[in-house]
Amino acid sequence: MNTLADLKNALRAFAAARDWDRYHTPKNLVMALSGEVGELADLFQWLTPEQAANAMADPELAWNVRDELADVFHYLVRLADKLDVDLVEAAFAKIERNETRFPADSPKPLA
Amino acid sequence: MNTLADLKNALRAFAAARDWDRYHTPKNLVMALSGEVGELADLFQWLTPEQAANAMADPELAWNVRDELADVFHYLVRLADKLDVDLVEAAFAKIERNETRFPADSPKPLA
Amino acid sequence: MNTLADLKNALRAFAAARDWDRYHTPKNLVMALSGEVGELADLFQWLTPEQAANAMADPELAWNVRDELADVFHYLVRLADKLDVDLVEAAFAKIERNETRFPADSPKPLA
Amino acid sequence: MNTLADLKNALRAFAAARDWDRYHTPKNLVMALSGEVGELADLFQWLTPEQAANAMADPELAWNVRDELADVFHYLVRLADKLDVDLVEAAFAKIERNETRFPADSPKPLA
């Protein structure tokens, strides 16, 4: 089974084979991430909450959602790699901070 | 060592303990993802390419970058979980499609 | 009454007085625009459609919405100024193209 | 000469003719704005600062930049209209607040 580490390495190899590391600077990758999140927003923007919740029941929409989630993830993993950040470790460290910021009886979600 | 599956489960437990699943609809999570990517853009927007490339050498900026990458990752993992998408699998499937779209001698990066 | 041209000039003067033109490059301004749209998303992300439709009835939220709309507009006007684009003219030209793309009996909104 | 008020009215008429007001809720319009800003980021993401500064010298890129700026402006004007916010007035009020937050000898731009 593929892991996040495998994905990081596969994306490195993909970029190296195309000489794209010169484009994949942190600043450019943040912009690319904005672009892909924008495409994800595009898929959901006119849906009602109910339609959005059932998005994966529509095969064409489901395919597009998977495709855009993959693009977002690609750039997030590339960006973290370039910045030498371990995403899973950073995410667990943030959960710990959020446990303090938002105690378990916290009425509103984090902004 | 923590895995992406561990993170998905930890985020599920965090939301469940706060009764936040009612907020974590696909549409809302896409907006939350946009918000967090916007905060990441905030950190890099006024940096020169050189400053951005050295972002992690500044301890305060490095801390903030890790913090924002964690927030982006949280919402991406939550969204994929709610949509029942395996992020790593979707990302590898997209690499395969990109191999076709951008042969190894492709001069320009994917838009 | 202030016009869009007045606003463009006021923002020019504001940046000039702080020597901020060196930061206000097109690429940086696009990132700043992403950041501010992210803050706008933040305000609406957990609201139900009904709460969002009544956002301006809550004085604190209304203040924040005006504040964030202003920030988005600032960067959009600055960016268009730096690129020498007349926003109103470009917007009317696009309406004309959309009249063709989406005839008046068009069932779905533009993506 | 067309004004911002003319544009607001033209966009209202465009939506009304297509019965699109049911889609143009504040929450949906914020998402649409994110989507269009993402497309703008797309145009600039791989450009060097120098290439970005000269974007309008390339006729095809210039056309696309105008097109995307128009889309961003459309949704911003629609959103402000739906929320009953006067964009120019809100933008001038924010300049006043920024005058206080960032005195004229302020060394760094607003985040």
Q: Which segments of chain A are poorly predicted (pLDDT under 50) over 5 or more consecutive residues?
A: none
**Between the first and last Cα atoms of chain A, what is the distance in angstroms?**
34 Å
Find the count of extended strands of chain A (DSSP E, 2+ residues): 0
The greatest inter-chain interface is formed by: A-B, 66 and 66 residues
- The CATH homologous superfamily of chain A is named MazG-like
The largest sheet of chain A, given as strand count, sense and whether it forms a barrel, is: none
Count of alpha/pi helices of chain A: 5
Q: Fraction of residues of chain A in helices?
A: over 70%
What is the CATH C-level name of chain A? Mainly Alpha
Number of domains of chain A: 1
SS-derived structural category of chain A = mainly alpha
Inertia-based shape of chain A: globular
CATH topology type of chain A: Helix Hairpins
- The oligomeric state of the chains shown is homotetramer
Radius of gyration of chain A: 17 Å
Strand content of chain A: under 5%
**Overall pLDDT confidence of chain A:** 95
- CATH architecture descriptor text of chain A: Orthogonal Bundle
Give me the strand/helix succession of chain A.
Answer: HHHHH
Protein name (chains A, B, C, D): NTP pyrophosphatase (Non-canonical NTP hydrolase)
Organism (chains A, B, C, D): Saccharothrix violaceirubra
Pfam families (chains A, B, C, D): MazG-like
Keywords (chains A, B, C, D): Hydrolase
